[in-house]
Amino acid sequence: MARNVPTGPPPPLAVQKLRLRYTKRGRLRFTSHRDIARAFERALRRAQVPMAYSAGFSPHPKISWVGAAPTGVASEAEYVEISVVERVDLERLRLALDESLPAGIDVVDVVEAPAGTSLPDRVVASQWGIRLPQVPLADVERAVAAFLATDSLVVDRLMKDGIRKLDARAAIVSMRASVDDGDPACATLLVVVRHVTPAVRPDDVLSGLRSVADLVPPVPPEATRYAQGLLTENGEVGDPFAPDRIPPAPGATRQDADRDEAVAGSPT
Questions:
Q1: d(Cα 240, Cα 230) in Å, to the nearest integer?
Q2: Which of 89, 107, 112, 233 is the most buried (most CB within 10 A)?
Q3: pLDDT at 222
Q4: Which of 65, 62, 45 is nearest to 53 (CA)?
Q5: Tens digits of residue pLDDT in 103-155
Q6: Could you give the CA distance from residue 229 to residue 209 in angstroms, rounded to a whole number?
Q7: To 10 degrees, what angle do helices 33-46 and 90-100 make?
Q8: Long-range contacts made by residues 160-164, C-beta under 8 angstroms, separation at least 24?
Q9: What does the pLDDT read at residue 38?
């Protein structure tokens, strides 16, 4: 039997890959990643970005999402890669795309991706801030101490196919409590989490605190992701775009630059 093949010329080849950092703020924290992706595709068309497309019977724009935040949380550090068939000015593209996106999704940074580099390899941890309104700082500090004192802390997560158990402690790099600058009666939990499978989310951290210290916030917490990237030597989260802004030294490879950034990168 003859195999059907698409007719017509193949799509133009990509000549430039771009990496974008964007935010998810306000009411849009309740928007699913699927809806965020649809909004991005519409914005790319409105901004007349010369997107590269896949081949085949159903061509799709070449868009690659990296470490999308779960529904219900805000983020200052979401990442996506796109490929284009014409070279573009990075700042002009950022402004045009930013104007075409809904309020709350703001494109804050764009860099060109050097050939042979991998953004997912640089996004290995997240820094979260979890506001706990009406929870005294002393209560959160006691709960944090109990959480960190455990070697393993198994919590339940409700999945589509039922309850799944995961270790909320193993992925935690650091955790501390502080007072919210804008509200002295509100404690804030600052957490650095390694990206593991399945991912440990703010809800899992809160489940762990409830398990070890019976910490139950009287009002819903507010979680925001402030950074994603490589872990530095002091346990902070570095900027994954830094190697793209600083070319490798003569004779060095891009992998050398990535490794150096993991050691000395500045936090977002």
A1: 7
A2: 107
A3: 95
A4: 62
A5: 999 999 999 999 999 999 999 999 999 999 999 999 999 999 999 999 999 99
A6: 25
A7: 120
A8: 164/198
A9: 96
- DSSP code string of 205-240: HHHHHHHHH----SS--EEEEEEEEPBPTTS-BB-T
Q: What is the pLDDT of residue 109?
A: 97
Secondary element (H or E) of residue 17: strand 16-24
Measured distance CA(233)–CA(129) in Å, rounded: 21
Angle made by CA atoms 201, 198, 24, in degrees to the nearest 5 = 40
**Count of other CB atoms within 10 angstroms of residue 198:** 12
Does the pLDDT at position 171 exceed 70? yes
Mean pLDDT of the chain: 89
pTM of the model: 0.86
**Non-local CB neighbours of 170 within 8 Å, separated by 6+ positions:** 152, 196
Question: CA dist 146 to 98, 121, 137, 169, Å?
Answer: 43, 32, 14, 11
H helical segments located in 47-195: 90-100, 137-148
- Give the bridge partners for 81, in sequence order: 19, 64
Strands 63-66 and 183-194 come out as unpaired
Write the pLDDT tens digit of every residue in 136-148: 999 999 999 999 9
Number of residues that this document lists for the chain: 268
Give the SS3 label for residue 72.
Answer: coil
Domains defined for the chain, CATH in brackets: 16-113 (3.30.70.580), 125-229 (3.30.70)
Strand partners, 163: 158
